[in-house]
Amino acid sequence: MSTNQQTGTFDRVVGARPGLPSTSAKRLAKGLGWFSVSLGLAELLAPRAIASLSGVSNKHTGLIRLYGLRELASGIAIFSQKKPTEAVWSRVAGDALDLVSLGVACTAPDAKRGRITFATANVAAVTALDVICAMQLSNGKQGIHANASCVVNRPLEEVYNFWRDFQNLPRFMRHLDSVVDIGEGRSRWKAKGPAGMDVEWEAMIVADVPGEVITWRSLENSDVDNAGAVRFEQAAGGRGTIVKVNFEYQPMAGVLGATVAKLFGEEPNQQLDDDLRRFKQVLEVGEVVVSDATLLGTGYMAQRPARPAAASELEGAEMLPSETATNYGSEERRSEGRII
Amino acid sequence: MKANCWYGKTTLSVEDVPDPQILNQRDAIVKISSTAICGSDLHLYNGFIPTMQRGDILGHEFMGEVVEVGREVSNLKVGDRVVVPFPIACGNCFFCKEKMFSLCENSNPNAWMAEKMFGHAASGIFGYSHLTGGFAGGQAEYARVPFADVGPIKVPEHLSDEQVLFLSDIFPTGYMGAEMCDIKPGDTIAIWGCGPVGQFSIRSAFLLGAERVIAIDEVPERLKMAEDGGAETINYREESVYERLMDMTGGRGPDACIDDVGMEAHAPAMVEIYDRVKQAMMLETDRPHALREAIMCCRNGGVVSVIGVYGGLIDKFPIGSVMQRSLTIRTGQAHVQRYMQPLLQMIENGDIDPSFVVTHTMSLDDAPHAYDIFKKKEDNCIKVVLKPDWNGNGAAKDDNYTVIH
Asked: Which listed residue, A274, A287, B43, B279, has the most CB atoms within 10 A of its CB?
């Protein structure tokens, strides 16, 4: 396997460092955790110094100690949670309380307004960081992950070879328009977006062990940061080939991000599962099987009534066999003869 | 073309829809000459099967003439007269190779729905909700038949539609119900339900070597048809099924029991009210009275064969009786493709003439009326055959059959 591991997405998908996500949001959360702990300890142990630094009255040391306890609790929560979304949001709530307290302190007769303004600016800056971090964690910024598997009643080598030719992927991956091999293990992927918005990216093969595993990831600076891995195993008893796929992508902000998110749907596992079902269909029966209801897709919203479509409706169909150049494995199935 | 479309509970409409066309290269288009209403269609009609959509075409028992074939279909040609099996099966996957066609892994594009409900998906089925693929059904003038190189069977011209149509479902289904009983010479088989499938189970049990067949129902003409097939009968409205069966078998119970009823069982009042209330409150989706009784009646070490359709969850299932008494439960949607050729051979040999079960022949236009009398068991209705080009002439093969039109 390659040692090229600069993205967290890639790490998780190919399993090089399982369970160790290293996205910026989590790093930021850790930084904020340390900030909470140090500020909390300072407020607990040296409330007078804190009061003087922020220009508030010495009379409030009790309150400052209480706020110190709150900071400590937030810090500990951040370090004790795998995904500290709630803990970081609790920091945001604490920030709000701090800002209100500073505002109240400002109105006191003995207030040192310059210092209070300075402290307020600092708290506001930290608040901004807290909000960014919490939102990133809440948005699932650490990547959307899907995995699925299936058993294909074909020999392992054939199954591997079919997948290894990435240009076959659009035959069963509903959202893909085309994958073009551009040489040196690189390929150009094009996906159909909603409302005619196409998304393109380039990917490279990271690892390729024939008959065992293929991993790929998008090149740096791609519009869509994504990575995938497919493993092949002989099923027990010679009953075909088990195919296991992991896939992950990083959603981004903006219109393009929303487009990509729609591509992968709200249930990425479901979508990958459906893709694998079609993969199995192409290999076993030669093409993707459609019913009247699923001409426009298999999801709940896409279902047509179970009745023939008018010609005009068929034009909008996503995946008709007429788009499939050949019926895969046709000769071999013929030579096997009818089965009953 | 004309087609019988579902628009909600007990609401059907025969209307014009676009003609089907080849969508997959292994498809054929069949011009339908005869199509039947199945007891399991009543579960759709009565609204007990989820994932139906307004406008869905019903029907999974049909036959006709091939009018178009896809590029990959080499065993059929335009003009062939074929009967189409109700499960759609690819012939290539693990289960098809094992001849368990109703478990085909490739024929249900909506497999994810079925997986959510049942854990795993079974095959696609014509006209039987979106859970089984969302395929247009055969109560229409034409149907698209996927995997036409695997499913449809050619039938000889000298056999009438009524003699071969039921190879599509109820004859193989009734037969598989009996076959799952592992019948040995001398066996006594009890059969719950004397609807069309039950009728075929009765005759199949005898064909498979049963000595006695005891059939249970409440509808006089159905009990009469069972007796015509050689069965002894019990009317559960008139006597206790358990007591009568024990009396008939010296207290041991039948060697095997077949549930040819399924999820909408009727029962003596209190039990039926209990299950109807639970079904209405969504505490159970199916009313399993026949199944419970079949289990309690079966002899120790016997087989309970469940071929009636169930769709979801049941309540008060006597698992203790099953376990303590070494019962075997066998079940499944019929693997029709497995049985079509041998059963066609039996028909040709004259061992059985499946047309006995037909009581009504009507035009496809009358489908809503046909469902209504079939559901209410009015006019002695047992089995309805619909014909798209029916003009009402020459319908009666026999004066005993009622002809509408």
From this structure: A287
